[in-house]
Amino acid sequence: MPSQDHRLLIYHRDSQLYKEALNRRLPQLEIHSTEKPEDALLHIEEADIILSWKIPDDLLKRAKRLVWYASTGAGNEHLVKNPHLSDSVILTKSTVYGEMMAEYVFAYLLYFIRNGSKHLEDQEKRVWEPIRPKRLQGKVLGVLGLGSVGKEIARRGKQFGMRVIGIKRRPEPIEDVDQIFGPQDLKKMIPLVDYLVSVLPFTPETYHLLGEKELVLLKEGAILFNIGRGKTIDEEALIRVLKTKKIRAVLDVFDKEPLPIESELWTLENVIITPHDSGINIPEEICEGFAGNYERWIRGEPLIGLVDREKGY
Predict the structure, then answer these.
(1) Given 3.40.50.2000, 3.40.50.720, 3.40.50.150, 3.30.565.10, which CATH number is that of 7-96+281-299?
(2) What is the CATH code of the structural domain delimited by 98-273?
C-alpha cells in the first residue's frame, strides 16, 4: 500500500483552478501547481505524482521520483511510448469525458433530424413551414471504440430506442450494445449503420482505419462523427466521399490541428467542424476523478483509467 506522504505537481494552463479544487478535496496532499516550465523545474524532482496533459520532455526526464502520471486527457498517444516515462510509472487517463462527448454527438444528431438548419433559414425569411422530422428510434447507431466514452454514447443511444452496434478489439458482450463486431468485420458493420461515431484512439492499428473503401460503404444519408483522433480517418478520402453528397459529417478532430485554413473541409456544406472541444476538460470534474483515484491508490485498490501501454490506450 502506498505511503500517504506524497507530492503532487500539477502542470496545466488551468493549474490554479486544479489546485484550488484539489486543496478542497484532498487537503492532506502536498500540491504544487504551475503552467510555467521554470516554476515546474523547482518541484519536478520531488514530485511522485504528476497531474498534466502534456509536460515538456526536458522536465519529465527530471522526474526521478515519479510513481504515477495522471493524465487529464482521454487519449495519450504522446505518453505511451515516451522514452522519458519509465515503464514502471503508473499511467492513467481521465475517464470523465463520456457524458460530455455523448451530449455532443446527440446534440448534432437531434439538430439534424429536427431540421435545425432549415428552421433557421425559414426564421430568417419569416417562413412558417412545418416539417415532418425523422426519428432516432429504430435507427442503427454504430460506435467504433467501446471504451468509457463509447459505452456512454451507446447507453444514450439505447435511451432513444436505437439499435446499437459496435467494434471492439475483443468482441465480448457489453451492456447497451446489441451486437459487437471484431476489427476484421468493420466492412460488414459499416453498411448497417445510419449514424457512425468514431471514438477510436490513435495507434498504429487505427491509422487511416476508415479509408475510401470503408467510407463508400456508408448508407445514403448516413452521418459520420469523428470525436476520437483525426489520423484514424483518411482525410483526403473523406473529402472525396463528402463531395459526392452521399453522407454528412460532424468532425471534431483532424489530421492536423488547428485545421489548416486551406483545407477543403471548411468549404463543404455537408460538414460541421468544431475545434476539438467535444470533450474539453472541466477542472472540477477532472479533479473529482483524480481524487477518487488517489483515494483508491492510498487504499491499495485498482485504479480507474489505467493505460495499457502495449495497446496504446
Answers:
(1) 3.40.50.720
(2) 3.40.50.720
Question: What 3 state SS string does 20-53 have?
Answer: HHHHHHCCCCEEEEECCHHHHCCCCCCCCEEEEC
pLDDT at 171: 87
Nearest to 13 by CA among 281, 285, 293, 289: 281
By annotation, the residues acting in catalysis are: 229, 257, 276
Would you state the pLDDT for residue 4?
A: 67
**Number of residues that make up the chain:** 313
CATH topology match: 7-96+281-299 vs 98-273? yes
- Asked whether the predicted pLDDT for residue 2 surpasses 70, the reply is no
Closest by alpha carbon to 10, among 303, 281, 305, 276?
A: 281
- Evaluated on CA atoms 245, 250, 255, 259, the torsion sign reads positive
pLDDT confidence of 3, banded at 50, 70, 90?
A: low
pLDDT tens digit string along 15-27? Answer: 999 999 999 999 9
Q: Is the pLDDT of residue 300 over 70?
A: yes
